[in-house]
Amino acid sequence: MSLFGTSTGFGGNTMFGNAATDNHNPMKDIEVTSPPDDSISCLSFSPAALPGNYLIAGSWANDVRCWEVQDSGQTIPKAQQMHTGPILDVCWSDDGTKVFTASSDKTAKMWDLNSNQAIQVAQHDGPIKTIHWIKAPSYSCIMTGSWDKSLKFWDTRTPNPLLTIQLPERCYCADVVYPMAVVATAERGLVVYQLENQPSEYKRIDSPLKHQHRCVAIFMDKQNKPTGFALGSIEGRVAIQYIQPANPAKDNFTFKCHRSNGQTGPQDIYAVNGIAFHPVHGTLATVGSDGRFSFWDKDARTKLKTSEQLDQPITACSINNNGNIFAYSSSYDWSKGHEYYSPQKKNYIFLRSATEELKPRTKKGI
C-alpha cells in the first residue's frame, strides 16, 4: 500500500503561531509529531515531483522516519525503516518514490515508499557519511561518501559500484546539484567533481576555513545552474565559494555565525551544523550548536534574522521544494561531550514559514 495520500500542497500561514512555547520552542514553531528517540542527524523534504510535502529524518536511534506535512501544518507519521547503526544522511530520488539512507553500519539502503520495503544498495569499509541521488541525462545512480576515504557511485540494480574514486581523507560532508558535486573531507580537504558522462574530479580547492569542515550546500546562479557552495565549520564560520569566480578576492568571502556576542569576555564559538539554500530567493539558513538558526542574504552580505535560543543544539535543517517551509531539528550533538547529554531531554523537529523571512530585503537608493 502506498504511503502517499492526496495532499496538494501547503497553503497560507494557517499552521503557524499556534504552538505552546517554552525554552525548547522559543520561536513558537509547529512541532512534528512522533520525533525520533535519539539525536536527529539529517532532514530532507520531498522533491517537486510529489504532490504535497513529505519530510524524512534520520537519527542516532538507527531509524529513518517519514511524515506527511498537511496544508494545515499537521504532520502525520507515515512509516519508518531501520538500520543496524545510526543514520548519518538521507536523500530522495528525483521522482519522490524512493528514499536513500546512509548509515554508520557501513551500508546504504533504498526505501521504496510505495511498497514500504527497504533493500541494501551500497556497502563501504567504513561508516557511510553522505548519500546523494544523481539524475543525469545518460545515467542515474547514488553517490556515497565514506570514512573509508572513498566516493562510490552505484546503480541500485547491481551489487558492485559503477565507479570508485579515492578521496584525500574521510568524507565529512557533500552536496550534489547536477552536474556538480562538492565533497569536503577531514584535514580540510575540498574536492569538486563534474558529473557529466562519467563522474570525475574537476578541481581541488584550498579550504577558505581554518577549522574542520562540518556541512556544505551548493548554490545556483540566476540561470539555475550550480555555481558555488557554502561551507560551514566547527568554528562558527561559513565560507561562500564560487567555482569560477569573476573576481576571487571580491566574490569569495567568509562570515562569522553561531557565536555569542562576547562583549564582556571571550566569545563562545559553536559549530555550524547545517546549511540550506532557499530554492526561490537564493538566500540561506544556517543552524548551529548554539541552539539558534539564522537566515542570510549572501549577495547583499547581510543577516536577515537570528532566532531565539533553543535549550539544545540545532542539528539539521531543510527547506521544502517551493521554499515555504523551513524544518529544523533540536537535539544533542555531543559537541560538549557525554557529561552534557541528558537522556530525559526530548528531540524535536520544528516547522516554520520560510516565505517572508528568507526574502532578500529591498535595497533603498542606488
Automatic annotation (TrEMBL):
Keywords: Cell cycle, Cell division, Cytoplasm, Mitosis, Nucleus, Repeat, Transport, WD repeat. Pfam families: WD40. SUPFAM superfamilies: WD40 repeat-like (SSF50978). PROSITE patterns: WD_REPEATS_1, WD_REPEATS_2, WD_REPEATS_REGION. WD repeats lie at residues 80-121, 121-164, 272-306. It is found in: Cytoplasm, Cytoskeleton, Spindle pole; Nucleus. Its main location: cytoplasm. GO terms for biological process: cell division. GO terms for cellular component: nuclear envelope; spindle pole. The keyword Transmembrane helix does not apply. Belongs to the WD repeat rae1 family. This is Rae1 protein homolog. The gene is RAE1.
